[in-house]
Design a protein that fits this description.
Length: 252
């Protein structure tokens, strides 16, 4: 199913970008590298969200039951595509414009795409919620049934992504079964005990801190901090090398 992607990079970018307040910007970029000109090159985007980022999943999901999907009627899609595509806009979305700016093709909607997802996937579904739809239905919130007829919450989208991971990851290299056990602690689960602080007489320390992510249960090892610093530095260097540009709204 296409070329394999390094899972570690995918997972790290996903974790960082999910912290964004804008669901449409929750894109996970994998296989990033620096080109000769110093610009960061992204090879794929994995996106999660709702109607602000859905590029075609809603019509497929709604057709299963079936439910009406107004985004497949004109004038949706008239500006750029010339016909409805499942996007809640007259044309392209933020995700589409970001992909174009990075020189990438449109991110294929997960439910409507039958090919390879080596270049990324869009899991966003219009009407999706952060909490499961059952949260709103169980509390008899007025209008919940019509507003959230399907459970396409973030948990569901993440489950789709998890099911896709085996086809994207060519190797388990770089992964460990246990990343929570601390290097220096007082025994017990994950070698952490609040009553036995690192540095105390009863505490024990691992032989190789560089093989651990956490040092004392609250703080990282130098190796852990190095991963964070390297990520920040590469982003800073990429921003400094980028040329200033402006964006204009226009008819394409």
């Amino acid at each position: 199913m296409g070329s394999y992607l390094p899972c570690a990079a995918t997972s790290l970018h996903l974790l960082l970008l999910l912290a964004s307040s804008e669901a449409a910007a929750a894109a996970a970029a994998a296989s990033a590298s620096l080109s000769a000109g110093g610009h960061r090159r992204y090879h794929s985007i994995f996106n999660f969200g709702d109607s602000f980022a859905d590029t075609g999943n809603k019509p497929v999901a709604y057709a299963w039951y079936p439910l009406p999907s107004n985004v497949m009627r004109p004038p949706y899609g008239e500006t750029f595509f010339g016909h409805p595509t499942g996007r809640s806009s007259d044309g392209r979305l933020i995700l589409d414009l970001i992909a174009a700016g990075l020189g990438l093709p449109f991110v294929p909607p997960y439910l409507a795409h039958g090919g390879s997802f080596g270049g990324g996937a869009n899991f966003a579904v219009a009407g999706a919620t952060a909490l499961d739809a059952g949260f709103f239905h169980d509390r008899d919130i007025p209008g919940a049934g019509s507003k959230f007829p399907l459970n396409t919450s973030l948990d569901v989208q993440l489950a789709w992504f998890e099911s896709l991971m085996p086809s994207l990851c060519g190797t388990a290299q770089g992964f460990r079964e246990d990343v929570l056990t601390v290097c220096c602690g007082g025994g017990g689960p994950y070698n952490f005990n609040e009553s036995v602080a690192c540095g105390g007489a009863a505490a024990t320390a691992c032989e190789d801190p560089s093989a651990s992510l956490y040092f004392d249960g609250a703080h990282l090892t130098e190796a852990g901090y190095r991963h964070v610093a390297d990520g920040w530095l590469s982003s800073i260097n990429s921003c400094l090398c980028a040329q200033p540009h402006t964006m204009k709204l226009r008819r394409a």
